[in-house]
Specification:
3 helices, membrane, DUF2842
């Protein structure tokens, strides 16, 4: 079921205000328990890039088109 424009806006606000800070805490906790300083710098960089991008991939449909005008609103 596709979300309406207003529902996507509300969910995107919730994700940015609650979900993203929670993800940061979880990712920080996971990465702090790994011994990353024993890895090559390129591998460590790849891990940080993965954790930096991984949160948005499943949420892309929610954020798509939210910054534009409401397509369902009248003129």
């Amino acid at each position: 079921m596709a979300l309406s424009y207003k529902a996507r806006r509300r969910w995107s606000l919730f994700v940015l205000l609650v979900g993203f800070p929670l993800y940061i805490v979880v990712a920080w906790g996971v990465l702090s328990r790994l011994d990353l300083w024993h890895l090559p710098v390129a591998v460590e960089f790849g891990i940080y890039v993965f954790f930096g991008v991984a949160w948005i991939l499943p949420l892309k449909p929610i954020f798509k088109g939210v910054g534009q005008a409401d397509p369902d609103a009248g003129e």
